[in-house]
Amino acid sequence: MSAPLLRVEGLKTWFDTPKGIVKSVDGVDLDVGRGEILGLVGESGSGKSVTGFSLIGLVDKPGRVVEGRIDFKGEDLRTASPARLRSLRGDRIAMIFQDPMMTLNPVLRIGTQMIETVQAHRKVSRAEARARSVEALGKVGIPHPAERIDAYPHEFSGGMRQRVAIAIALLHEPDLIIADEPTTALDVTIQSQILAQVQKLAAEMGLGLIWISHDLGVVAALAQRVAVMYAGRIVERGTIDEVLDAPQHPYTAGLIGSTPMANERGKPLRQIPGSAPPALGRPSGCPFRPRCARATEICQTEPPETLTGQHGWRCFHPLQTPTEVRA
């Protein structure tokens, strides 16, 4: 089996505040291969976005990556210089933000921004950079790209602006894209179109994609594997079918149970009791313990990972009987 494109081991990103240390990411392990889409899901505040920013060195102070290894194509990005990270960002690793206006400058034409992006990493003429930009816009479904490239961001709809942001991420045919909830603000029709386009591009270009979302429905339709995050930790991971059809962790089951089902029309949604722990007051042991009906005294200690094939979870009282335990 070939090595994954990206392997993250023991990643910890903490924020120093006047009231104490906020452990936004507290020991995350994940990996993604070429042509694979990995969904990273969880409630708001679970550490998903900070994980994405940590991978490419975009955590601002007072945040800092304090521990872990980020292995990208055999290179540990934790030890990379700021100049090396700048050369990788936008070239071999790209990021798509939730709000496309975090990518787009409202006072510059789309073409100007895309051409500058190309020339920042490649010594090519402006004409060649423009041609590459037009081609990228066409790949993501922008109609008449040779004309629309001269428009300003405000002349595009929200869905089209997000397509432009995706096109910019694809300009250098990166090896890895990190997408931070890029379709959350879009209506379901546009969302469906973009998801289909992303899936197609990942398969055609062989790029790895980490899709950060709180929407299990989107991840189920898009990804091959999923990692469920809670309070800064991965509590369950595996293939889409394994995790969504046979969840082991009570938190994963709670997320699935709170999702509207077509065959349960009119029934109230099931809620996870309580709320996520405060950033400065996370409990010892299993972070889900205060909200879990299955919790016992042993849950005050850190649960090891139980692993069956690709399916892994961290829980002393899973919904089914564990078969293999890895500390």
From TrEMBL:
Spell out the SMART domains in the cross-references: AAA
Q: Which SUPFAM superfamilies match?
A: P-loop containing nucleoside triphosphate hydrolases
How does the protein associate with the membrane? Peripheral membrane protein
The family assignment reads:
Belongs to the ABC transporter superfamily.
Q: What is its main location?
A: membrane
Localization per record: Cell inner membrane
Give the CC-aspect GO terms: plasma membrane
Sorted alphabetically, the Gene Ontology BP terms of this entry are: peptide transport; transmembrane transport
Q: Which residues form the ABC transporter domain?
A: 6-256
> What organism does the record attribute this protein to?
Cereibacter changlensis JA139
Q: What is this protein called?
A: Methionine ABC transporter ATP-binding protein
Transmembrane stretches, by residue range? none
Which Gene Ontology MF annotations are present? ATP binding; ATP hydrolysis activity
Keywords of the record = ATP-binding, Cell membrane, Membrane, Nucleotide-binding, Transport
Q: List the CDD domains hit by this protein, alphabetically.
A: ABC_NikE_OppD_transporters
Which PANTHER family does its entry note? DIPEPTIDE TRANSPORT ATP-BINDING PROTEIN DPPD, OLIGOPEPTIDE TRANSPORT ATP-BINDING PROTEIN APPD
| InterPro entries (UniProt xref) | AAA+_ATPase (IPR003593), ABC_Ni/Peptide_Import (IPR050388), ABC_transporter-like_ATP-bd (IPR003439), ABC_transporter-like_CS (IPR017871), Oligopep_ABC_C (IPR013563), P-loop_NTPase (IPR027417)
